Every structure is written in C-alpha cells, then in structure tokens.
Amino acid sequence: MNTLDVGDLPPYDISSQSPLWWGQLCTAIIEGMMFAILIAAYLYVRLRMDVWPPPGDQYPHLLLPTLSLIALLISAPFSYLASEAAKRNDRAGMIRNLVLNLVFAAICFTLRILEWRSLNFNWQADAQGSYVWAFLGLHSFDFIADAIFTLVLLILILIGRYGEKQRLGVHVDSVIWYFLVAVWIPIYIVIYWGPHIFGSQ
Amino acid sequence: MNRMDKALTQPDVETGGVAALRHSWRHPGGIIGWFSYDTHQAIGMRYIVTAFIFLLVGGIEALLMRFQLAHPNSGFLSPDRYNEIFSTHGTTMMFLFAVPMMEGMGIYLVPLMLGTRNVAFPRLNAFGYWMYLGGCIFLYWGVFSNSAPDAGWFSYVPLAGPQFDFGKRVDSWCQMITFTEVSAMCVGAELIATIFKMRAPGMSLNRIPLFCWSMLVQSFMVISAMPAVMIASSYILVDRTSGTNFVNPAEGGDPLLYQHVFWFFGHPEVYIMFIPALGFVSAIVVAHSRRQIFGYPAMVLSMVATGFIAFGLWVHHMFATGLPQIAQAYFTAASLMIAITSGVQIFCWIATLWTGRIRMSTAMHFVFGFIAIFVLGGLTGVMLASVPLDLQVHDTFFVVAHFHYVIIGGSVFPLFGAFYHWFPKMTGRMMNEPLGKINFWVLFIGFNLTFFPMHILGLKGMTRRIYTYSPEMGWGTLNLLATWGACVIALGGVLFLVNFFWSRKAGKVAGNNPWDADSLEWAASSPPENYNFEHLPVATSRYPLWTPQEDFTVVTGLRNDRREVLVTTLMDAKPHHRYVLPGPSIWPLLAAIGVSVGFAGSVFNNWYIVWGSILTGLALIGWFWPRRPVEMLP
Amino acid sequence: MRALATIVCCSILLLGACQREKRDLRPSPTRVALFGDAARQSPLRPGGPVEPQPVVTNPYNGSSYAIAQGQRLFNWYNCAGCHSQGGGGIGPPLIKKAWIYGGEPENLFDTIVKGRPNGMPSWGGRIPEYQIWQIIAYVRSLNGEQPKSATPGRSDTIQTNPQTLKSRTSGATK
Amino acid sequence: MNWSGKRIITCIAALGILLLAGCGGHQQSVIDPGGPLAGRTAGLWWFFFWLLTAIFIAVLALTLWTLTRRHRGIEQESLEVTHLPSEQTESKLTRVVAVATIATVVILFILLIGSVVAGKANADLGSRAKNAMVIDLTGNQWWWQVRYDNPDPRRIVTTANEIHIPIGRPVEIMGRSNDVIHSFWVPNLQGKRDLIPSRVTTNWIEADRPGTFRGQCAEFCGLQHAHMVLWVIAEPEDKFEAWLNAQLRPSVSPTDSVKQRGQQVFLNHECIFCHSIRGTTAAGQVAPDLTHFGSRRGIGANTLPNTFGNLGGWIVDPQRVKPGNHMATVPINAADLQPLLEYLESLK
C-alpha cells in the first residue's frame, strides 16, 4: 500500500483556492441574484405604469448619489491592497488599507443617508417608494454588515490577536466588498438615473 | 471486502494515529455539547430525521383532506379548516420535507463519496440545520395557534394580500420560507465548496460519482432560485406588516409580477427536489446491476441541462392568465425540451439494466417503481406543456395527479430506495428485504389507487382546492377510491417505520460494503467514524472500489491532533493545501437564535429586525473570535 | 418537570393569537339593534336610584376577521361617501382623538344606531347588530386602538397617505 | 416474466380499465365538447393521449424486459472483473440510446407543432368574428357578475351567475375581477382564463349545440371557492333574443297583495343596500342583480337550485349554506318571509 505524502503542503492558503473564497462567491451569487430580480421587477412595474415617477414623487437628485458612488468606488482598491498585504502577512499594510477602506465606506454611507433623508416619499407612498426604499435598505444592510465584519478584522489585527485564518478572512472579505461595489452600480443607475432615462417627462 | 477496504481501515503503523484522530474528531459531551455537533454525519442525520417526521406530518394532513373529500357535501372539515390544512400540507411537503431531506442526504453522503472528512464549512452546516428547525417550529407554532397559512402553498396575491387574508396566517407562511431558504442556501453554498475544493486527490471532474454531480447541480439551482422566493415572500410580508405597495394591484404591483417572481423560483424548486433523486437512482442502478453506468457523460450533461432549462420554463404555470400567444408558444417548447433530458437519463438507466446482472433488492424495486410512475408523470407533464390542453386541465385534479406522480414517483420512491440502499452504511445493519418488498408493493399499489383516479377526476372537471362538491357531479366514487388508496399509502408508511425500527436493533449486521458497490462511501466503516477515513483515499478511477489494483494509494501526512482535511484543485483534484476545520461550537445555535428572533419578531413589529440583527452580529463575532492559539500559526 | 414547564409556556404563547384569529362566520344571535342604549351620557336619572352603567364591550375587539369585514362593510354601506377612508369630507374625520360624541365602542355604537344631527343617518333598524360591531372594530383600527397584529398593513386601493402620518419630508407629501 | 413483473402489468391493466369506465359524457367534462374550441382541444387531447400511452407502454415493457434477460440463457458476459460488458455491447447500446433520444426529440417536436397549431386555431376563432357579442364578466368573491355589453346603452343587460349565448356565434368574454384572482372555466366550451384585478383578460366561447354547460371557478379564491359556479346556456338565436328582451324589461310590479307585501318587506330590510331590482328603489351594486331572479337556475352562485324552499333557507341563514360568504344574516320574522319569497320568485 503506497502512500501520497501531503505533510509538506502548507497548512493554510490565502488565495482563491481556499474553500472560504468559494463560499463568499456563492454568497455574492445569492445576493446578486436577489438584486437582479428586484431590478427586473422595478422595470416591470415601471412598464405597467403610465406616469413615472408616480405623481407627487420628486425627481431623484443626482449630485449626492454620484459622490456617494465615487466614494464607494475609491474604497474598492484599498480592499484589494489590504488582501494583498494579508497574503504578504504585512500587518502595517493591512491596517492602513483597511482603515482607508472603512473611511471611504463611511463617506459613502453618510452621503447616502443625506440623500435618503431628502426623499419626499416613504415606503408606503407608492410602488416607486417601496422599491427605492427596498434597494436602499437591503444594500445598506449588506453594507453595514460587511463594514462591521471589516471593522472586527481591523480590531483583531490591531490588538495582534490574528493568525492565518484572520488573514484569509481579510482576503475573503474583499470578495464581498467588490460585490457590494459592483452591485451598487446598476442599482444606482436604476433608482437615480431611471426616472430621468425612462421616466415619463 | 476487497483490498481497498482492508487498506483503509487497518490501524496505522503507530497506533497513536487512530486514537489521536478519534480524539480530535470526538463529539463534545453534555447538553451544550449535543447542541454544538458539527460533523457532517450528525447534522446530515438530524436533517434526515426531522424531514422524515415532517413527511409523516404532511401525510396526516393529506389523510385529513382525503377524508373530507371522500363524500360529497361532507362536513368533516369546515372550509376555513380545509383551506388551512391543504395549504399547510403543500407547504410542509415542499419546504419542510422535500428540500431539507435531499439536502440532508447530500450532507451525509457527499463527503463520504468524495473521500473527505467533513463538509467545507462545518459550523455553517450546524447553523443551517438550526435555521431549518426554527422554520419548522415557526410554521407549526402558527398551525397550532389557529394562524396556519390558508392561501395555498404559493399564496397568490391579492388573496394573500393584506386586504383579503386577515390576521397573521400568510405571514407565518412568508416567514417560514425565509427560515427554510436561509438554511437551504447555507447547505447549497457549502456543498458547492466541498464538491469543488475538497475531493479526494485524483478525482477529476469526470470521476465524480453521479450522486455528487446531482448535488452540485442542485446546489447551484438552490443558490440561484431561492433568492426569487425570498423576494416573493418578502413582498407579501412587508406589504402586510409595513404597508408597502409591492403587490398592491392599484399601485402598479401587478398580481402577475408576484406570479412571475414566485414561479421563477417555483419550477427550479421542483427540480431541486427531483435532481438528487436522479443521483439516488444512478447510484442504486450501478450498485445493484453490478455494471458501470452506461453513458456517464450523457447522464452528467443531461443533469446540468435540466438545471439550466428549469430556469426557462416557469410560465407554463401561468398559461391561463392570458399572456401573449408568442410567449406561450416559447414556454411550450421549453417545457417539452426538458422532457428530452429526462428521457436520455431513463434510456441510459434502461441500457445499464439491460446489460447488467440485476439483484432484485428492495432498492431495485423502488427504482422500477420510480421508472413506472415517473415516466407516466413525465408524459402527463408533456400534456400540460401544450397550451390548449393546459387551459383545460390547469388547476384541476389532473394537475394534482401529475405533480404527485412526478414528485412522489420522481423523488419519494427513489428516496425510499436510497433509505434501503444506504441504511446499512448509516446504521451498520441491513434492513429486512422481504418486509421491504411488501412495503414497496403496498406503497406502489396505494399510490396508484390514490392518484390515478385523480387524472379522471381532473378530466371530469373537478377543480383543485375545493373543500367539497355536490353529489350530482359524479365525482363521488372516484374520490372514495382515492381516499381508500391514501389509507393504503399510510399503511405503507407504517410498514416502513416498522422495518426501520426493527432493523436498527435486530437487522443482519452489514459489513463495510454489503452491496459490493463501487463508490468511496462503501470503503468507510458502517456506521462511519466521525473522521470517515483513517487515511483519505486517492481516487484512481470513476469506480474506486471496483478497480482491482495491487497497491492502493492513500494520503498520509495530515496531522491527527487537529481537524485537518485536504484541499485539492478544481479541475483534476491535485492536492493543493491542507485546511484546518474549526471544531464544534455552540455559537452557530446562538446565531440561529438571534436570526430567528429577528425573523419571527419582524412579523409582529419591524423593530425586531434591528434587535435580531444586533443579537446575530454579536453571535457572529463570538463565532469567529480566534480562541485557540493553535489557529494562530506564524 | 422541565418539559411540562415548556409545554405550559408554549400554550400561553399560543393563546396570544386566539382572539386575533377567531373567525366567527355564523354570528348569533342576529338581532336588529333598535334604539340601542349602549351608553347613556350620565348615570343620573330623575327620581330613580343611580343605575350602574351597563358595561358594553365590542365582542369583535381585536379580531382580524371582524376588522376586515368592517372595512368591506365601511365601503359597501357607503360610509366612505361622507367619511372617505377615515379622513373626513362631508362627515367628520374618523382618525382623531377628539370625538364629538365619545370614542368608546359603546359611544360609537350609539352614534351609528341612533344617528347624529348634521347628517349622520340612524342605521338602527337597517343593519344587523353584529355588522355594526364589525364596522366599529374597523373604525377603531383606523385610530390605532386595535392591536397592531390584527390590523392589515394597507388596503388594495390607491394609497392616500393618512394626514396624521408625521411626514419627515420637506416637500408636500403625496 | 418473474413474479414481480407480472404484478406490475396487472396493476397497469386494472388502472387502464378504470380510466375507460370514467369516460362517459358528463356535465363539466373536458372530453365531452359542446363547442368548436373544446372540440379541437378534445381532439388534441386524444392525439396526445394515445401517442403518449403507446410510449409509456413501450418504455415500461422495455424496463420490465430487462428483468427477464437473465433467464433466456444469454451468455452472461463476465462482469465480475471490469463491471463493464464488452466493447461491441457498449457501442450497440450507444446506437440504441442515440436512436431513442432522436425519436424522443422528433415526437416532442410533433407534439409541439400539434399543440401550437391547435392553440393558434383556437385564438384565431375570435379575431375572425366580425359582429361578435361582448360580455363583461366580473368575478367577485364567490359569484359572477355578467353584463351584456352593447353600443346602445339602453340594451345593456346585467345578470349574475348565468350566461345565455346563441348557438354558432362566437362570444367574447372580457374578464375582470373586483377582489382576488378568479378563473372562468366552462370545460365543455373552452379552456380557462384567469380574471385578474387591475387587468382585462379576453376569452372566446362558442357553442355548436344547444345545452346547459356548467362552469366553476378554477383559481383558489378564498373560503367559498368551491361554490362559485356559473351556467352557460346555449340556445337557438330566436330563443336567445327572447331571453335578452325579457332581461331588458324592468321588474314586473306585483299586483296581488301578498307579493306587494313581499316587495315592501324587501324594500324595508337591508337587502336594498346590496341588491338592486330595476323598477324599484333598490339599487345596490355590490351583490347580484335580482331584477329577473325568478328566471335563474340557482341561488348563491348556483350553490342550490332555485326552488321556494332553498330560497327560504338561503335568506334566513346564508352562512349555513355557504359558510363565510358575504351575504348578511338579515333577521326576518316568519310573517314577512313568506310574502318575500312569493315576491322574489315572481320576478321572472
């Protein structure tokens, strides 16, 4: 009975080969599928109504959301740099990039809250109100959840209580961050530019 | 027991190996320990047992419905109670029995068949089970507090909307779906990661057992279809509790939008329940006709094709809503296309049986019963694909007969075959064969006695979901016959339970491979240890236990003092790195409780989402907080 | 012993839903409420001893079935014609705290049965008593005086934002 | 054929006989067409049925035959070592399965063409008809409101739970719903069409022989979904015109004292809030129009046949007949009941 010795293989691996990376990919597929169906439903409802946005709803502003999107886009490279630093086990690099990532995330989120408060319709008002609040609510829920996940990782690294599993966590967390940024672009176009593009002027 | 079994289970040279392995993979003791198991056999068995209990509960509800329909104008059940029971019957069978049972069998068997020690994310596995149990408790808390769902298992709006369905009835349905699909998506994600990344070295893509292929296809369908039902049930829930206008007909929320979103999930759902059964049948046919499957690539491709086409034909549930002619013609074609992939698989099985030496065990009986019933159900499905016929038989008892033929014939018969086939592996004892064959015939005859007359009732105009009918309609005799058939099925269920409990104690002791089958799970001991294999096997061919080799290779070098598994590359499974699995912990249960508080509470007051999220956040932090120094390698 | 405790507390949990989910399809007795004396203005009677005020409660309080039937009857009997979904028009608004003739169930019962000056017709001999109580259950749900779990989130009509919703927007609410 | 094979065959044969027994012409039966649409669908049904039954028998026979191969002395290729039959057996099987798959594809294609052609023919029936009659059918919770549309408003007729149609003329049904999704289905005439709130769905029915065809709501719509029945009565052109003109006339005002007393009882109770009788002050719109109630076949969306006794039982306690329906339980004393019944039955 001959043997295949794997003793010399590394006991961990921070790359897309690790099962955790594939698990996050599945999470991204699940969330992506959800937002895709919501966008399709939003367009379906738009096609059934003659007046869009429904009477009484304001035309969406564009300045604040665009700035918020830009802040979100800037935060993505820092998440990439953090995961590269995690591969090199470079603690200072990880801390710097995670902090910058969270800072730009905070900027994006505050701008979004400001825009959110300026809407003149709530979720009960009409179909568009329900959908806009659903998009904002669901994306913000994922956004906060992932920001807290990144914050906890940052704290762990700061107090030095981290090992290769936590470095893998930083690498894998960037997958979800890329997804959050990528999925916000179509949502942003649909709920902010939508009424201008396919609205009924 | 051929050379491979001996190689895998003989004690290692340094006897400390097995003892250390058994120590590091031991189950924690005590009550808290019981709640923190995370080995795939324990969690898989919990899914299977809970799902089987809900099969019996669903069966009792079916019997109640049949007693009500046995006679015209019978007063056995009031219309309100009947609506509750048929909705709960459908919901229980679809969400609390079928999907979790197939997931449970997948969790139990896939790691064994791939030659690894556990699923990729053991704690997520435990969390998934607690969420499923939470869903069961939540629904049946509703049932016993007079707020069971009463708008059918797919709750069409506006009947299920806030104005026409009062109280918290449909809410309990909506939230139960949120529970069960979180659990299904957990299992889907971890099975994908396990099958892609943790196969035995040498098990390239074309050497994966067919059952693992079916679980892979099912998992991809779960993670792509379940979000649709999450949206559909959330549409109703948020409309009912917070007054949003997602499905308010007056505000643009077209009832057809709800139907599109629901059936986009609905049809893949029935394939999610059916495709694992294809894996069961393939495994049983290969093992009991002692012949390699005929047309392995054809089988895999047709399973994958079924997975894709299933997403393209949901509108055949909505032919009666007056959609444009072109759309109906396209969906007729798509619905007919899916019959080709099932046809290919049936032909490949028959070819395998044709040139194999068949051992007519009980499992094989169930396979023959499956072919007989599923082919009939599939052909009535082809009839339903055509628009003019569907307009005549949609929402009648013809459709009820069709989907019971395809689900019970297509999924439950292979499932019982799988129980008889893998019972020796799960418990170490054989099930009684003569009693098993009687059990098969009682189920087969009872099934046909119940559901074949429903075809005729459907053609005679008996619509679906009616709590009673008048005597002059001429439906009385056939309904009475169907009720007698239902009692025979119940007898079949009791016979299975008798065989199950009798064999657990007094069944013939089964070795590692009683059926002399081919796949790796038969190399592990029965019932398998927590770590499955003392040394992980190396797969050198598609049928590891049937390929005679002089010196069988095993993997050495994994550390025994902690839970280590081997991660291999995706395409041809070359060892890539070792992966330390987390040990058992109570945090998944606490996280599940946090999520359940959030979900169950949000039915009554939206602020519970906030409290639930905070609780879950804290539980997750506790879950991932690095504790043992061993995890913090340099 | 522990199992018994869990069963007991579970059953208490279950009771919570009883009143909300009770469906009373065949109301009995079906009486026509003629000159209902559910609540007199004051207990003092000329010359007679002080009589205790009859305690009258709405049998359908908190029942979601009754609130839904009340909503249907509110539209079928054209209460919406004057009160228009509770916002008021010809008739006074029903979503407010200051009732002219009292907001307790018995006062509402008297208002509906006897009618009131300035146009409120007397429904006494017209509609059976159980339907009056169902309409009262719905009217009080407009005011939020029914348990929130029994009140529907919205109705399947064009959404008219109730005026009392504290809108936090600068512009005019829809 | 070994023991279990025979048993499967006997089982299927028994069920086949059962199917034929159930075939007889019955009311509300898909395979007893009363019109061209249902006729074409029934034809398609039998084409599908016989073709697919043949396929089922073939596949089942093939499967059961695999059980017998062992006994006819076919040299049993030694599977023991490789668990794989010889090379030429595999290639023979590959050819057989390939042929079977191609046959499946061809058969499915034939079925597709047959179905689309029949579907197109059914759909075109309506567009060809020039002066088609239009009926607005509105589903309510648990009864049907029927309104014969007409360009001249004076000739618009409103009735409930019953549709009269002339023979040989296609009739367009415009389906609407006031509350939940219902489904209009008369199996003997045409496939079902859902009635969806906030939408108008069109459907065509045509009868080519006189008769009364029963239809039932086919989409689950709540507590009394089981008792939401309507009758389609096909009659020759002249009888239909006579019926239509009779429906146009307002209700006949009663002459003898008992019926007048009944009319008074009707107008004094709360019936007028929901029901309407043209020719009197009752003008409720939310319940069936009772102007020609006497001429209708059934009560409560045809839950009960329209007889004196049933009407009495229905008025006094509708919840016992149809638990959960929206008719109010109106307290009526015995003295008023009898005249009311006389009056209502007189509204021919």
Q: State the end-to-end distance of chain D.
A: 69 Å
Share in helix of chain D: 40-55%
Major sheet of chain D: size, sense and barrel closure? 5 strands, mixed
What is the H/E string of chain D? HHHEEEEEEEEEEHHHEEHHH
List the helices and strands and how they pair.
The complex is a heterotetramer of chains A (about 200), B (about 625), C (about 170) and D (about 350).
Chain A: E1 3-5, H1 19-48, H2 63-87, H3 91-117, H4 127-158, H5 164-198
Helix pairs in contact in A: 1-4, 1-5, 2-3, 2-5, 3-4, 4-5
Chain B: H1 3-9, H2 16-24, H3 30-34, H4 40-69, H5 79-114, H6 122-144, H7 169-197, H8 210-242, H9 255-288, H10 296-309, H11 325-354, H12 362-385, H13 387-393, H14 397-427, H15 433-459, H16 476-506, E1 554-556, E2 564-568, E3 575-580, H17 587-602, H18 607-624
Antiparallel strand pairs in B: 2-3
Helix pairs in contact in B: 4-5, 4-6, 4-16, 5-6, 5-7, 5-9, 6-7, 6-17, 7-8, 8-9, 8-10, 9-11, 9-14, 10-11, 11-12, 12-14, 12-15, 14-15, 15-16, 17-18
Chain D: H1 3-21, H2 36-68, H3 87-128, E1 133-140, E2 143-148, E3 157-160, E4 162-166, E5 171-177, E6 182-186, E7 190-195, E8 201-205, E9 211-216, E10 229-235, H4 237-248, H5 257-268, H6 271-274, E11 298-299, E12 304-305, H7 308-316, H8 318-321, H9 334-345
Helix pairs in contact in D: 2-3, 5-9, 7-9
Keywords:
heterotetramer; B: 634 residues; mainly alpha; two-stranded antiparallel ribbon; 18 helices; disordered N terminus; D: 348 residues; alpha+beta; Immunoglobulin-like; 12 strands
Summarize the structure.
The complex is a heterotetramer of chains A (201), B (634), C (174) and D (348). With 634 residues, chain B is mostly helical.
Overview of this protein structure:
The complex is a heterotetramer of chains A (201), B (634), C (174) and D (348). With 634 residues, chain B is mainly alpha-helical. Chain B is built from 18 helices and three strands. The longest helix of chain B has 36 residues, at 79-114. Chain C is mainly α and 174 residues long. Chain C has a domain at 66-152: Orthogonal Bundle (Cytochrome Bc1 Complex, Chain D, domain 2), CATH 1.10.760.10. Chain D folds into two domains: 26-67 and 88-248, Immunoglobulin-like (Sandwich); 257-345, Immunoglobulin-like, CATH 2.60.40. Chain D has nine helices and twelve strands. Chain D has helices at residues 3-21, 36-68, 87-128, 237-248, 257-268, 271-274, 308-316, 318-321, 334-345; strands at residues 133-140, 143-148, 157-160, 162-166, 171-177, 182-186, 190-195, 201-205, 211-216, 229-235, 298-299, 304-305. Chain D is elongated and about 100 Å long. The interface between B and D is large, with 97 and 99 residues.
